Amino acid sequence: MSGSESPPPDLFHPKREDLVLTEVLFALSDPARLEIVRQVAGGTLDMANCHLLNPSAPKSTKSHHMKVLREAGLLRNQPAGRGRLLTLREEDLEARFPGLLRVVLKG
Amino acid sequence: MSGSESPPPDLFHPKREDLVLTEVLFALSDPARLEIVRQVAGGTLDMANCHLLNPSAPKSTKSHHMKVLREAGLLRNQPAGRGRLLTLREEDLEARFPGLLRVVLKG
Question: Which residue among A104, B1, B13, B106 is buried most deeply as judged by most CB within 10 Å?
Answer without folding.
Answer: A104
